[in-house]
Amino acid sequence: MKRSFLVLLAAALSFGARAQDPSVQETARTFLRSGDFDNAVLVLTRALQQDPKNYGLQKDLTMALFYKRDYTKALDIIPMMLDHKEVDPSAFQIAGNIYRALERAKDADKLYRKALDKFPKSGPLYSEYGELLWARKDFDAIRQWEKGIKADPAYAGNYYNAALYYYHTKDKVWALVYGEIFVNMESLSERATAMRGLLLSAYKEKLFADADIMKDQPKGSSEFARAFLESMGKQSSLVNAGVNADVLTMVRTRFILDWSRNYAQKFPFKLFEFQQQLLREGLFEAYNQWLFGTGDNLPAFDTWARNHSAEYEKFTNFQKGRVFRMPPGQYYQ
């Protein structure tokens, strides 16, 4: 929830810079970023008293009160903020997080439903509503995350939540697919580092745990998922001596070549197209070492990086200069 609010804070401050007195905005921004929430609340409260219909001020003040943990006062602002003609999804996120902080799950549930009726393509709202449901052990959470992936494929949070969910089920496909998408969308975060470790575990403990790769797969798996498993199954003999970063590089190289020949036209998919690009540019080994090497065997990865310094530097420079986003229309779950 903290990370979500940092994103919301940046968005609200940007909005406020356009919607209110720049001096008030700059003062509030300085206080919020320095952690002086008391003064941020003071400045924003006085400004809102002078301009009570200012939507940017309403959002900024509500967030400042959240950070201050003065949830009761924040509740006084929420109705006018949500009824404002300029209301956007982030306002519902702010309100939802306040209800969650107060453990008012029923109010939060009602709020998210209303928000998604109004903004059915908002990935962050699906993500946070799913988190609310998951905290209550309501397995409808995965339906919200899947809806978010379909409606707003460029938003990373739903891939993260869905990958974690599928990792703890018998499904062998979607933890790998969604997890790798997330890692590429949010490559430098702590969550991405943890997800890289989960991906390695999923290859070892889920995908190749049985000689029959199709064993125990849920009934009704999508055609895409079956194609993924069939193509990976052709490479399974490569793991007979174990799974590590080098073996996964071989497995995934053969997989992407097979997928390109047999399935790419039927199932165009940005993640696999990206892997093809890396193969063409001679960066796929470095990518796989980055993805799995540090979690598999850090000394071995360090040795590989030293022995392939030019290749690894080329990959890291490439990675820094790109933005990975899934496009609409590639939902196959």
TrEMBL record:
Keywords: Signal, TPR repeat
InterPro entries documented for this protein: TPR-like_helical_dom_sf, TPR_rpt
Ranges occupied by TPR repeats: 21-54, 89-122
Signal peptide extent: 1-19
UniProt keyword Signal present: yes
UniProt cross-references to Gene3D superfamilies, sorted A to Z: Tetratricopeptide repeat domain
Keyword field contains Signal: yes
Name of a matching Pfam family: TPR_16
Name of the featured protein: Tetratricopeptide repeat protein
Organism: Flaviaesturariibacter amylovorans
Lineage, highest ranks first: Bacteria, Pseudomonadati, Bacteroidota, Chitinophagia, Chitinophagales
